[in-house]
Structures are given as C-alpha cells and as structure tokens.
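Work Package 3 (structural annotation) set out to generate three-dimensional models for the target panel prioritized at the project kickoff. During this period the team completed the workflow that converts sequence records into discrete structure tokens, so that structures can be stored uniformly alongside our sequence database. As a representative example, we reproduce one entry of 237 residues exactly as it appears in the project archive.
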Amino acid sequence: MEDKKLTHRQQDFLKALIDLHQSQGGGVHYSMVAEHLDVGKVTAYEMLRLLEERDLVRREYERAEQDRGPGRSPVKFLPTALAGPTMAYLSGAEWISDEWSRVKSQIIDKLHQYRPQGYDEFLQELLDRFPRRRSPSVYLAEMITSLVLGMHSLQEHTEARRLSDILKKIGLPDELGVSAIPGLSVGISLISRLNGRLSDVLMAQANKMQTLLSQLNYEKRSLLAEFTREVVDLVED
C-alpha cells in the first residue's frame, strides 16, 4: 500500500468521489466534486485525472446526449476497486500523522483563546461544521469537544457534572472506553435546559459517532481517549 500514499488534498478528492458515487450511484461529474469541496471545476478535473494516473479513479463516457446538461462534457469519474482499500488504509494512518496532531493542536489552541470570555462562540463554530463532510479524526475530535463544551455550559445541573466526571476517566485503566461517548451525548441531550440546537446535533450525530468509534483500533481509541481527558481537564480547570 506504500505506493498508494496520497497527500491530504488528494485524499479529500478521492473521499469526495467515493461519497458521491455511493450516494447517487454511477459515475460522478467533476463539477459535482468541485461543488462538494467548494473548489474550481478545473481544479477538480485535474485532481481526478491525477488520481486516475494512480489507478484509483477511472473515467466513463455517457452515451445518451439528452442526459447531459448544457455545456457539460460526457465524461464522468468512478472510484476503482483500489480506492476503498486505499482510503481505509490512509484513514487509519492519519491518526498518527501530522493531520491528527494539527487538528488536536487547533482545538486546544482555540480552547485557550476562548477561555477568558467563555466557550459559547467556539461551540457555535463547531456546530456549524457538522453538516460538512470531514475525515473521521476531525469529526470525532470536534464532536467530543462540542459534547464537553455543552456539558460545561450546564455545570449547575447535577447530571452534567456527573457526565463530565465520567469523561475525565474515559480510557483510563478499569474505566469506560471511548465507545461510551455516544451514550453520553444522548444523555446530555435529555437535560431539559440544554441548548436546543446542541441537543439536536448530538442526537442526530450519535449513530454516526457510534459507527466511527466501533471502527477504531486500540491505538486510535487510546489517542481519542487521551484527547477527551485533555479537553475536559482544560475546560473544567
């Protein structure tokens, strides 16, 4: 798999193509990839051509003229059989790469930045990002941070304090593993005075979070548990 090593930008384009292919079926026009990633059409086309040279993407041509939109070329792109295994390999590797370190550092820096005036604005920034597609590590890190900040805003409630205490022990010997986090998000959503938008997000994302956590190996679970404890300690200190 070493010869399939991709830059993070290349991974973003390959993942976008796979997601769009799975959601709609069939070939994907490069303009859809461009819109999905908010980049130019030429950029999307060139990147997909590059991935094609890596045997991760292949082209197909539409036969029916009436199926094409105005000004749209008949060429579409599909992931090859190598695309899925390559992304699975790389998504596992990213947890110990610069990507994970960068995401973790950004969140910790933001927490320090917002600490003097409170975390409400940062929490809203995080909630605004959830409709977007991101890598599993970014998604989980931001979801956990949102959960911790939500509980912090409800420290006057006994239930919230108890949940915070549980998160402080996540991943420690003889304590709960990170697989308990989705259940905590459901629990906090039941607190009557919880911010309505946060409650909706936590409930909507709980299943996705559970799925991603179930796919983590021991090393990745340990990294995420350590991050969770670090965020809780910083916010609650």
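Residues 65 and 74 are 8 Å apart (CA to CA).
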